[in-house]
Amino acid sequence: xxxxxxxxxxxxxxxxxxxxxxxxxxxxxxxxxxxxxxxxxxxxxxxxxxxxxxxxxxxxxxxxxxxxxxxxxxxxxxxxxxxxxxxxxxxxxxxxxxxxxxxxxxxxxxxxxxxxxxxxxxxxxxxxxxxxxxxxxxxxxxxxxxxxxxxxxxxxxxxxxxxxxxxxxxxxxxxxxxxxxx
Length: 182
Description:
53% helix; 9 helices; six-stranded parallel sheet; single chain; 182 residues; alpha/beta
């Protein structure tokens, strides 16, 4: 699979009311660390950095300090050619998605990627946030009805690990769980 982080920026997070914002950031960074441990190709997108949304969480950037940020103006990441090209270069049909806001950016990306790009989408519900609990939940339900698979960050991490006999990622997986799961 590959992973995309959509708009984890302060002004976008400020509008999130479906999950505690510190928990959201914790879960997002944990997912990022998991992707790094398992060498999952990862894309970082931003929207309107200078005019509205602000810069990507430093904690997320610290996991991927050399990754380019794909800046766009559209609410739908799929509408940006740079994003579609990056997804295509990774040559993986399964996309794990973490983003803000669930009911706008995540929904539009998921529906477009499935319809136009023939991708399978896994939406990380607890590393995404909506403007209200209802907005997040109804957006998740709508995506599920369309075929999106709901997951949590820890579920993704442990599915990537799969077997405790995988010693090359064992310690790093436990470190992430200790730090981010309590």
